[in-house]
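Render this sequence as a predicted structure.
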Amino acid sequence: MNFVNQRQTASEHNVNADQILTEIREANLSYLMLAQSLIRADKEQALFRLGVSEESATMIALLTPAQMMKVASGNTLLCKFRMDDDLVWGLLTNHGKGAANDTTSRLHASILMAGRHQEAA
């Protein structure tokens, strides 16, 4: 690979990395705004839906817009997947099963994830 191609590849990588960071920041801000809205509307339901502790929910609810922007501006996603095993993923994606089992599978997955939230809290 010659110098020009190496430079182009590095430049493309920087653009892609910058785009990813921008998208992470946007996702963080959207997540914080949604979380704050859910918490203010119904704290108990928000704890379940967000999978956060009561202390975290209280802190999120009290964030000012400036604080939300500051927290969201990091380079790490604030939210995380709670579907961290094959059983839950299989239930949610419902591969190879009919639509009739879809509701039951999603309910089962929700129960498993809720149980894990209770263990973590």
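Summary. The radius of gyration is 20 Å. The chain has a mean pLDDT of 81.
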